[in-house]
Structure to design on (808 residues):
């Protein structure tokens, strides 16, 4: 088990290095169009071939990984923190506070986000740099994606509040925010970790879908989401299996994160 | 002996039953959506238009191959010298699909319904060009004259879209005069059209048309699944294919892939020139400059757009009339050359300077603008990305914004909160008069600067004058001269920067005979009554 964890950490470290030094490893700029080589197969010059505009796939994958690997976990962290704050408070205080907070959470879950996102896009200025656009997209995802997790956290917090451990803490005179901070929140950590790791791939895929609405990453900046959109065509992979590289990398990366962090979590 | 006779009789009866038990020939293809209406006078969407084409009987039909009108329910017609009236002599002994006889009353009823403002018929809009009412004169059972309040140029061609409905049938618009009638409608799943038993047309050997007994139209939105079904033999044709699927099909089944050549549709971009638009004044000045627009046009590599985005199945566009329109295209014009150096020279003439790889105007503003296009349209997204790189070569930063279609329409028609737009124009009509609503400066569809009270520029005033002139004369030569000149002005001034004209790509199973796909809609089944399936040819 230890060796698997080490391998996972090594993989993540290599990936992080490759992304940080993408400019050195990438055979070309992610935006450069080799128009005589659209949809080219793997060659020495283009190890993962080129996309339909002749852009180097490896370069786009490295830069796209950099964008998604920084922004998707950041958005997931934001959503998890919000969920932890809202859910734990509701579960801890209970009664009317819980009813009120959960009613708001249900309202957020029931909101037609699709139309709201379209409205938000319509309100955004048009002349926005691609990096700003992608940051706004992930910030929106982080701000909107907490409600589902908050319900889970609230249920867990409620159970904890009724546990013998908390009863003992109360008997020892611990109450209020100290009880929440010292006893409830640390015990909510596993569920928050789980919510965080679930959110990362969800946000990456949501970003890919938002691209259809013009809310995703603006061209020419790549992201895992925009790279995964290439798989929309049913036969895309039949003649060019290397188009699955972003999907494979996404699966491996998320798995490695799980493997690497689980030990830490157990220790905690 | 008795037993032999009995066996022969049983065998004979069995063979007889077998022969008649065989299902009739059926052509299958897909519709992108459920038709919104089956009333031929209310057709506004593609799926309904397909059903109208297959079931509706018209007075005359535009032959999609020769681009000439041919008699159908009218054996002859005559447009008056003033262009205000048209007289028809109708075919005798024609019946609707329910057996109701066809007469001039039906044409009268159809036209009165079509022109009724309360019906809001999209087909009727083309006839409502001026104030006043249309009147009809039924002079005999098979003769009718229609009088319009104002002259209508290309009046006879408009009747290609008018499917005649019955004035007397209890089935109303369900009774049709076309080759097929609607027999079954499983909403969202499929439509079944059956052969009209009373269809009037016969082939050279006297055999009643159409040859194919029924048509099954499956509702299928996903184009990839449609392709898969074609290759599996579950459908016989795809009317329009995108270049990616066309190339895949050409690799797998080259006998099915058909390229009918360049079509009427165009892809173009334009700059927002609306005076009240919420765009900085210095950008408005760029967009209003002819040199700026010409420079942008010369910086775009149209050959690359056609080759990379459309995989060679498109051609650099020239002006607003496609080369597919053999009659009206101005063949003296050529597509704008890709020449970034010449583009920079033009920019310099306008006071722009290239500094450290970025173009600046004479006030020092870096040249940067956004272009909006509809999200989900891969071709347009790719074109925008290629234009982005082309413009970067002359120091211009282009920001691409993809919007959902309603937001985009809101911006280009109401708020005018955009800088440049990339869209396509779907064109069904060969006559330039159909684009009057785009070129008249007072029109709402004059996209770069809609609803001008007076023409904003001298060249727009000239276009207005020429378009009015071609719309009010019946002298073809004069019309052609006017339309040629408008094409030239648009080529020079570039209010729309025309990018490419796409080729018409279709797929037809080898099992379908007599298919001869063309550039005009409906590309593959325009001669539906002459199409034949392989089994029928074998048994012919």
């Amino acid at each position: 088990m230890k060796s698997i964890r080490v391998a996972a950490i090594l993989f993540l470290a290599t990936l992080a290095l490759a992304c940080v030094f993408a400019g050195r490893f990438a055979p070309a700029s992610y935006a450069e169009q080799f128009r005589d080589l659209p949809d080219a197969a793997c060659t020495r010059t283009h190890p993962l071939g080129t996309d339909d505009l002749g852009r180097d796939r490896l370069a786009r994958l490295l830069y796209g990984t950099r964008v998604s690997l920084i922004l998707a976990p950041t958005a997931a962290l934001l959503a998890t923190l919000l969920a932890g704050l809202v859910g734990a408070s509701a579960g801890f205080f209970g009664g009317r506070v819980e009813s009120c907070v959960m009613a708001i959470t249900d309202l957020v879950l029931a909101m037609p986000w699709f139309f709201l996102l379209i409205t938000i896009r319509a309100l955004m200025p048009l002349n926005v740099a691609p990096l700003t656009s992608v940051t706004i997209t992930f910030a929106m995802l982080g701000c909107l994606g907490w409600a589902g997790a908050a319900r889970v956290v609230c249920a867990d917090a409620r159970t904890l509040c009724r546990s013998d451990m908390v009863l003992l803490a109360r008997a020892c005179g611990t109450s209020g925010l100290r009880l929440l901070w010292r006893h409830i929140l640390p015990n909510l950590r596993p569920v928050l970790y789980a919510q965080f790791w679930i959110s990362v791939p969800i946000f990456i895929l949501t970003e890919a879908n938002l691209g259809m609405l013009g809310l995703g990453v603006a061209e020419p900046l790549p992201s895992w989401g925009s790279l995964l959109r290439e798989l929309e065509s049913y036969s895309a992979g039949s003649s060019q299996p290397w188009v699955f590289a972003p999907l494979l990398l996404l699966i491996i990366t998320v798995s490695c994160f799980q493997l690497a962090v689980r030990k830490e979590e157990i220790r905690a | 002996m008795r037993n032999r006779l009995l066996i022969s009789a049983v065998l004979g009866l069995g063979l007889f039953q077998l022969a008649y038990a065989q299902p009739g020939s059926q052509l299958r293809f897909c519709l992108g959506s459920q038709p919104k209406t089956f009333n031929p006078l209310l057709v506004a969407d593609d799926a309904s238009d397909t059903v109208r084409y297959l079931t509706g009987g018209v007075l005359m039909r535009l032959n999609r191959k020769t681009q000439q009108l041919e008699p159908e329910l009218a054996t002859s017609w005559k447009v008056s010298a003033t262009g205000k009236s048209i007289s028809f002599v109708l075919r005798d002994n024609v019946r609707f699909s329910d057996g109701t006889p066809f007469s001039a009353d039906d044409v009268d009823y159809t036209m009165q319904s079509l022109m009724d403002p309360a019906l809001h018929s999209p087909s009727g809009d083309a006839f409502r060009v001026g104030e006043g009412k249309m009147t009809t004169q039924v002079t005999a059972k098979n003769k009718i004259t229609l009088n319009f309040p104002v002259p209508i140029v290309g009046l006879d061609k408009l009747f290609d879209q008018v499917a005649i409905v019955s004035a007397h049938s209890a089935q109303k618009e369900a009774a049709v005069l076309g080759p097929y009638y609607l027999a079954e409608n499983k909403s969202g799943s499929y439509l079944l059209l059956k052969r009209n038993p009373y269809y009037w047309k016969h082939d050279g050997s006297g055999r009643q048309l159409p040859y194919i007994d029924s048509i099954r139209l499956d509702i299928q939105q996903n184009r990839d699944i449609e392709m898969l079904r074609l290759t599996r033999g579950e459908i016989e044709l795809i009317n329009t294919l995108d270049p990616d699927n066309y190339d895949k099909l050409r690799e797998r089944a080259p006998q099915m892939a058909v390229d009918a050549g360049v079509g009427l549709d165009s892809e173009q971009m334009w700059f927002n020139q609306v005076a009240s638009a919420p765009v900085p004044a210095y950008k408005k000045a760029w967009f209003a400059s002819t040199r700026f627009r010409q420079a942008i046009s010369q910086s775009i590599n149209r050959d690359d757009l056609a080759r990379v985005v459309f995989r060679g199945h498109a051609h650099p566009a020239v002006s607003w009339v496609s080369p597919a329109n053999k009659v009206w295209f101005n063949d003296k014009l050529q597509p704008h050359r890709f020449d970034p150096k010449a583009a920079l020279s033009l920019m310099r003439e306008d006071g722009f300077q290239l500094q450290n790889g970025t173009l600046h105007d004479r006030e020092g503003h870096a040249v940067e603008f956004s272009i909006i296009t509809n999200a989900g349209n891969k071709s347009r997204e790719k074109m925008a990305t290629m234009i982005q790189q082309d413009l970067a070569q002359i120091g211009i930063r282009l920001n691409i914004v993809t919007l959902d279609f309603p937001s985009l329409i809101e911006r280009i028609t109401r708020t005018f909160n955009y800088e440049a737009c990339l869209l396509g124009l779907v064109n069904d009509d060969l006559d330039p008069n159909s684009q009057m609503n785009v070129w008249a400066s007072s029109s709402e569809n004059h996209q770069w600067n809609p609803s001008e009270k007076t023409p904003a520029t001298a060249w727009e005033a000239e276009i207005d004058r020429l378009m009015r002139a071609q719309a009010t004369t019946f002298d073809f030569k004069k019309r052609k001269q006017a339309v040629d000149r408008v094409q030239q002005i648009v080529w020079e001034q570039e209010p729309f920067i025309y990018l490419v004209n796409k080729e018409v790509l279709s797929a037809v199973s080898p099992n379908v005979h007599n298919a001869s796909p063309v550039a005009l809609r409906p590309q593959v089944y325009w001669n539906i009554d002459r199409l034949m399936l392989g089994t029928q040819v074998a048994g012919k």
Observations:
- Chain A has twelve helices and no strands.
- The interface with chain B takes residues 31-33, 35, 38, 52-54, 118, 121-122, 126-130, 211-214, 218-220, 233-235 of chain A (CB under 8 Å).
